[in-house]
Amino acid sequence: MIRHIVIFTLKRPEDAPKVKALLDSCKGLVPGMHEFDVGIKTEGLEANCDVVLISTFEDAAALAAYQPHPHHQGVVAQIREMAASRHVLDYFC
């Protein structure tokens, strides 16, 4: 299993619900995607970012199929316009 975590800080934090909706539309895009959870900053809880994606893939092949998927790439292009920064961590779990 591979865990794929992406953390975004947005140019306009109020865009977090829109980014969440875009990311949520990627859920189940490819076989081998087991978990897909998107969270946004919650007032009153500690956070130094605006949006986080935590997903789990069966193997490297499933993650490799997700990355270039046309729908995913369309979402990436939209989020890129709204993001001030992006951090990624992929690891075996």
Topology (elements, then pairings):
Layout: E1 2-10, H1 16-24, E2 33-40, E3 51-57, H2 60-66, H3 70-82, E4 83-92
Report on this structure:
The chain has 93 residues and is of the alpha+beta class. It is 31% helix and 37% strand. The chain has helices at 16-24, 60-66, 70-82, and strands spanning 2-10, 33-40, 51-57, 83-92. The protein has a 4-stranded antiparallel sheet with strand order 2-3-1-4.
Task: Produce a short descriptive summary.
Helix content is 31%, strand content 37%. The protein contains three helices and four strands; from the N terminus they run E-H-E-E-H-H-E.
Number of helices: 3
Mean pLDDT: 98
Strand order within the widest beta sheet: 2-3-1-4
* Span between termini: 5 Å
**Structural class given helices, strands, pairing?**
alpha+beta
Shape: globular
Series of H and E elements: EHEEHHE
Strand proportion: 35-45%
> Regions with pLDDT < 50 over 5+ consecutive residues?
none
**What's the story with the biggest beta sheet?**
4 strands, antiparallel
Number of strands: 4
Radius of gyration: 13 Å
Helix content: 25-40%
Task: Write a concise keyword list for the protein shown above.
single chain; 93 residues; alpha+beta; four-stranded antiparallel sheet; 3 helices
